Amino acid sequence: MTDLNNSHQNHEENIVNEKEEKLENQKENTERIKDKEKKEEENSKNLEELRKRIEKLEQERQEYLNGWQRERADFLNYKKAEEKRFQEVVKFANERLIKSLIPVMDSLELAIESTNKDRKDQENDSYLKGLLLIYSQMKDLLEKEGVEVINPKKGEEVNPYFEEVISEVKTTEVPENKIYQVLEKGYILRGKVIRPARVIVGKN
User: Fold this and answer.
1) How far apart are CA 3 and CA 55, in angstroms?
2) Which CATH number describes the domain made up of 148-204?
3) Could you state, in order of their start, the residue ranges of all structural domains in the chain?
């Protein structure tokens, strides 16, 4: 009888121990779950902070990039403006120089024309050859600088953009208001008329 009671008591104790062990295990599992959830929450917070930091860095990078692009664009615009100003200065200086050479060309042409009329032995005339050489060199120089000659023909229509009418002459050689004679050739520098041709027109 005593053994039976002891066996029953031991069985009850085992059941109690098992329940206590299960409770302890459940408690440990609950704590582990809570720890895991806490870590996940911390990780989530860390990820959110990292995401915000990345966004901030990306924003700062974009601001630096935009600032650099603006400065580069400003520099390129400044460089282009300076180059344009320099080209304008050079162009203006060339235009002044060429304008000063045009009267020299006029004088050379008049001298050559006059010499052709006065000299009989033109082939052996060293003076005339010298004038022609200088005229040829001047002409080549002006052509290299982009100068074009305006030299309208007799009987052509007057183009007010290229020709300037100086006077009229009564004649039947050309129609009314057509070019009768070119007094001075005109000149164009890179598309700009720097001196119009001066002409006489016919009047019937």
Assistant:
1) 76
2) 2.30.22.10
3) 2-145, 148-204
